[in-house]
Design brief:
With 289 residues, the protein is of the alpha+beta class. It is built from five helices and 13 strands.
Amino acid sequence: MTKYTKLNLLLASGFLAAAPLLSAPAVAQSEQDSQSKETAELPTPREVVDRFIKVTGGMEAYKAHRYRTSTGYFEMPAMGMRGEMVVHQSQPNLMVASIDIPGMGSMKTGFNGTTGWSTNPMQGPMIMEGKQLDQIKREADFFGSVDILKNFKEARTVGINEFNGEKCYQLKLTDDTGITNVYYSVETGLAVGRKAVEISPMGEVPSVMTISAYKEFGGVLVPTMQSVEAMGQKQNMVTETVTFEELDPAIFALPPAIKTLVEAQEKDTKTKDAPKDGEPKKDAGKSGS
């Protein structure tokens, strides 16, 4: 599995919300467990994921890097849209990503260890809450998408089924945000696809992602092509470079507009918790007799 799966759809959701052709309402995921075409005993999810880690370089190779910067581009071919994409990450769970589309501006999303946020020209600054916050928190985990099982409550191998014409082990992963089905090639052990429902500012968005074109960067294999089909449109995320140089912590600081929202939210919480005139303080002890 790759670090840039759901993140890319989260990042693009601001643009999707503004696209007239994508205004159809999302529907809840109806992915059902497929019947396995094989009767042989299936590997456990742990065995499938451990094989993936091994064939992509091994956990020690992943742990050799504390920082990661990926660059490339995001495109929606049917709409003639394309923009530069940059993703910065740092252990344990810091992340900021951006897409810059000419004529539309910059769309950014991030997680600073506590706050999930996004900004874009159409919707402005936004603080993530609920399932959307849970989702981006999981995506910001530096190793969470390598050892994908660590951030899901339940996992099981559903069967051996085809994805994009390739025979795959289908893993059904469950957490508080819903169900994610991930497909690992029986032949190579690589992650080749994913079906899920993403939580975005637009609501629940069912998506199908195809993962391909693995290339080696810093001792690990990284998929450089990810194609997502969501709401009747196809989006491509192409990774061109991956580097591992140390990053300035300031990169992960909250943007001024987001910081203002956080401060206002904190002030509002304090105001609501403060006792009204005549009411005892919440932490006041009981009077003695």
